[in-house]
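Next up, a specimen:

>
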Amino acid sequence: MRRSVLLAALLLVLATTGPAVAAPPPGPAPLAAAPVQVYGAWHCGDDFCTWGTVRTVAQFDSQNHWLVDRGDGRPSVNLVVLSFVNPLDLLRQTTDATTLDGVPRGMTAEIVQYFTARGVRVMLSVGGITYTDDWDTALAENPTLLGQRAAAVATRLGVGIEIDYEQNTGPNLAGLQSFIDAYRAVHPYDATGARPPARLTIDVAAGDRWLIDLNRKATADWLRTDAPVLDYANAMVTARPVSAGTAQANWQEHVDGKPQYSPPVPPLAPAKFTGAVYLAYGGKPLPECVDYATSVQKAAAPYVQSVAPHGAGSTAGMLGFMFWAAERPATRGIGTVPPNTCEGGAGAGATALAVPVPMPALRQS
């Protein structure tokens, strides 16, 4: 009787403990979330992206103070992109009622200094959808001279240059390559970001299904981490505001590439692009401008900071966010002028996301 009790107890111990099992080998360490480094706004001035009139700093500040003060004296953004310069006017050094030596009259050194004195980087956007045909003409006429003249303006104003060439069908890629080569001959690529005129970027579509040829060329040749030519790309806004989920699906297309296309679009390193959301659209304020708690940038921030590379790059996370657009981006709609300013949206996001001002050296991989 006693032997059977002991045997039963032994069997119970073996049944409950079982043989020793080796622990599984550790998996790869998760990629660390990336800090938001680029947090910028395109700026359309007070005349719907024309910038045709010289403005005093005081008047400009009355409409745009939120950009340099989120409510506690710190800027709401670390980058402002003045939009737009007509590429054909720049090439031909046009001077007329709204343009001086190829640059809109409102894009003055004083307006640039309004931002840079507060640690906010400034760039000029060359192009935009309105000037697509003028990009085509300028690139056919003399792309090298256009690149040289863009570089000269960058030097004179102490700004970077953004390429916004929105030709969806048959873009002049050879001409654009000549433009970039000429610009880089004056302002070589600078990974430190210390020289503002060395910052040269490009806009691509929200995802990989528009501006396909331009995106393919930029991703394959200009936005590589091993041999970078352009600093980064901006994935532009869609035709109208979208949810965070839709925005993320578009941005994921850049990360994945389009191997099914012929020829394929290669994947883009997350560290080589930003994603854009609307600040203003139509007749009422958007959360992106006035309520960070319910905004797209808040909902999308975990993705933006952690999206893993998928064939290009080695670090997780995109560079950050761009906002379309400050002041008066369209003839209809409220824009971002008082009382519809954006301290509570973009400004609060700068605080919540610990956006650095001034912008630091950007991740390179």
